[in-house]
Fold each of these.
Amino acid sequence: MLALLGLATILALLVAIMTNKLSPLVALIIIPVAASLIGGFGVETTKFIVSGIKDIAPVAAMFVFAIVFFGIVTDAGMMDPIIDRILRFVGLRPTRIVMGSALLALIIHLDGSGAVTFLVTIPAMLPLFDRLGMDKRILALVVSLAAGVNFLPWTGPVLRASAALKVPVTDIFSPLVFVQIVGLVFVFSVAYVLGKREEKRLGLTGAQGESAEIHGRVLSAEEEKVRRPHLFWANIALTAVILGTMISGVVDASVMFMIGTVLALILNYPGVKDQKARVDAHAKAALMMASILFAAGAFTGIMRGTGMLTAMATSAAGFVPAEFASHMPFAVGIASMPLSMLFDPDSYYFGVMPVIAHVYQSFGGAPIEIAQASILGQMTTGFPVSPLTPATFLVVGLCGISLGEHQKFAIPYLFAATVLMTVMAALIGVFPF
């Protein structure tokens, strides 16, 4: 009975979110509450919700303060010299332009937002592609590839995986650092090869690129007003300390970003009015994700508290051959990027992944391995081509190409990145083959 009720709950969640009948926030709360009441748990449902929210609170806090922290140091201009140096370096050499596009996207994506990455990187690099007649599908690909492989402890997929399985984000991320480095080497290798191909196609020589004038950016009046260029190195040092301490696991990630946000405000905007304005500027993005995470806490709290998740895993385990069980993380890793075309992040990480993880656990596996396999492609390398994410349409819109063109050109490279990282994760023992 509980297994069937749990299955119906997850299917209802998937259908409601994927058909846009309900927003993820509403679906994650109302559907499990209704299921719990149908299951006869009554007011005990509230206890399950509170338990789930308590478990999710550190993750939500980390995300809120990460958004505000990176917003503040970006407003202060920490990224400006880096962006300008990249633009000066690339000149009009296609190879440098393509690799510079990947590097810029990688740096901008430090705030964890794919949309911001595309909004900054593509307009900065597109004039160079247009001027030389370069293939704009390459620009769409390399920024997508860089953002996709650059999964970080404060990005959406890692946060969702952490929230769904109630494990620290650093426990998920730290074993994957070398895997990500291999993925990034692949990103720049692809950028180099595609850049060389464009040089050959266009018949451009290195001398032509070296003699070209510098391509620069123009900041708006509002951007100029909040810039603090004299504090560049201070912001770089602060960011390095915050990220280094957080990734090391010495101090909890939520605490480090809370401290970092306070220090960034005091350093760059000592006035109370300015501090309030900077927090307000980034509050919408932080609140939207925090509300989703708390709603997810309610969902997972009910699914666990009622026993529906355990019942589903127990039933599903009967259909999994024992000899296949140890291969589940590797199979999930290989399938993770294509799964982005079928499931949005909330549906997958809060609806599908916990069931897979519990089935794997029933055979003696560690659920965290399913989470690690999932983030190697599900809405990481997969999000920039998935029709389920708005960022995909942002990429094609800014580059001026069609969705079909982008998907046909980019998917083989994005999938290759996932396969490479999955194999590497298995080779170094993150999870078994």
Note: The CA atoms of residues 26 and 185 lie 40 Å apart.
Amino acid sequence: MGTNQKHYAGDGRHTDSYYAASANPAPERPPLVGAHEVDVCVVGAGYSGLSTALHLAEKGYNVAIVEGARVGWGASGRNGGQIVNGLNASLQTIKKRYGQDTATFVAGLVQEGGEIIRERIKTYNIQCDLKDKNIFTGLTKAHMKELEERKTLWESYGINNQEMLDKAQLREHINSDLYEGGLIDHSGGHMHPLNLALGEAAAFEMLGGKIYEMSMVTAVDTEAARPVVTTTQGSLTCKTLVLCGNAYLGHVVPTLTSRVMPVSTQVMATEPLGEELAHSLLPQDACVEDIRYILDYYRLSGDKRMLFGGGTVYGGADPLDIEAKLRGNMEKVFPQLKKVKVDYAWSGNFALSFSRVPQMGRIGKNTYFAHGYSGHGVTGSHTFGRILSEAIDGDVSRFDVFENVPWYPFPGGRLFRVPYSVMGSWWYGLRDRLGV
């Protein structure tokens, strides 16, 4: 996520979030100045870029990352911090659109991102408050049927980590009367997202990688035999270029502009609740999201704050009052929090693809890209980073599958894609409210 585009060209400081306030110490890296050459240049120091770069550094490649602000400035440092398996588009949807082979392929990697995150945390001793389990909640009988079908479908692909929870069982995890029940994924989890990004950046640098911060990309030459990235103060020529700007790449690469749309979502953090109140709300300390089209998602931080997120603004604008937008939803779930103070509230962008399936591809011979995780970027970006590194290292077997998945532009083009999406959001929101 991230704030309005104007911030991106500013001082590059992290947004005023709980994550930034509780971030582990990290150096401020210098900008790219002058002309340089490198084997692989990665644009964007979020999860996609960091994952790609770290995998390649482990393979011995000479890699540099160019970042317009600071490491983890965008989605990777602002998101809900939930390790949720799967894509935005369901396996059933993928099967209907792209066939059984593609669905089977995707099912084989939907848990990979979480596994990569845990491996990174363990291997590089990243301190980011890692905790286990995530829960999907249903508010209606129709939602519960949908969760039952999801569990059955995933089991048909050999994924057996999920367990249905009836209303009474759910109360052992979430002290709220709002839900009919839920589905717990024992392989899910949550963590401090900015500290994960900072830890991955430190691991990359430990292996010899170079990160240039505050280096806004102004031009990209993907047609040259050796791609060139130009910034406000320098340039980087490389054998292979990887574009991981996601919702913040702007119009620097017009080929990619129509593929995704920035969408903002919001998060707020209460004051520390104390052990007793926090435990009474979420006794098992799992993270939670409901399955409505415009959903709530929440969890406890390492210092026992309630981190509560939700809301959607197509086009990427920020609401004027984030707390006012989210507080009512939080109090519907937990009336116990009516008098609790909110210390932080922030907004940011993720990149939405029209099909809700993330996209990976190539521009010319030597430029790769990955984007469009559609709200499921924490795990998806780590998986895609590994797949990109495999392709650059010569194994394109998994890359080719995603590159060949058809993508579709938003109806109405750039001018009307926001109102079209708002209308669709209203329709699905109405279905949620009617329980159908």
Note: Residues 413-434 form the longest helix (22 residues).
Amino acid sequence: MSTQQDLFTPTLPEKQSLRTGARLWLPKRVLFTPDALEEPFGQQIYERISQLHLPIEVLKSNRLTGLRGADERETYRNAKNTLAVVKAPPGAFRLQPIPPSADWQMNLAEGCPAHCQYCYLAGSLQGPPVTRVYANLPQMLANTASYEQPGKLTTFEVSCYTDVIGIEHLTGSLAECIQYFASRPETQLRFVTKYNQVDSLLNLSHNGRTRARVSLNAEPIVRRLEGGTASLDARIRALRELALPREQGGGAYPVGVVLAPIMPIPDWRTYYTDLLDRLAIALDFDCDLTVEFITHRFTPGSKDVLMEWYPNTSLEMNEADRAQKRNKFGGVKYVYEPDDMKRLKEFFYTEWRNRFPNAPIMYWT
């Protein structure tokens, strides 16, 4: 099995994370388009951001301009420090199916404040990676009713293109979604985060219709490849808080673990065993828990973008050590070789079931 010796050394896992909770993201520049401020929810976001005393600029038109720097690195830095509050375009109301993650993808924002060096948004979003938040979210939520399937649970994923907790203190968008779906029988909202600021969600009335998922990984991957995010311990604590019953101070949410992206780093069995042990200690009570396993993969386009964003990265993206996987449109992804995938899958399925026999494995990819 290929490893990443240039990035990780085979040491025993650290018992304490070197970072704790993630810092709240406070963008250096906040842009509002005029049409966003015509929306009542856009006005709510404006008030939230004003209370944080962040610099706000109301644009003269509904186009975002002036985002590019002298080169790609400067463009990346500028974009990652910018929040734009805009009105979602008509295309955002045409939801796309995204099995196996959920039935439908609904984006409350696009762009993310984190600095993950394997970022799956690279090559997926057009233009500089500015975080764009939608001011017409209530209309987008109402639109989901037309996608519900009577007599069947319909699931909606809202964190494909952003980290919803990473921006929640600025927008309140996730709380808006949770409270909307609480009133929709036979639906489930799904989100995933690498952040730990979940206190504002714990007292919301969700009626069990939101599955709160936390993205976890081996300690060295969290520390070295997931810049700006919460430590592994902080994420596990946040997951526990979300899952705990209300009488114990928790949110009583159905919860989930997204273990991604799995990488065969040196001594990977030791690191991932440690992660699962820490998770089992934290979730030492009955809760509605699921898991999704996602191995690392990349496309030629995403690799090019990531190398521009993180030119000094040591992330392994060697096509010669990978197998090709093609989609129905002829696009190529580079994934681990079949024998490597088999060993990884056998390990994770066995170790998960040993600790969480009643928590279903949703999928492996």
Note: The longest strand covers residues 255-262.
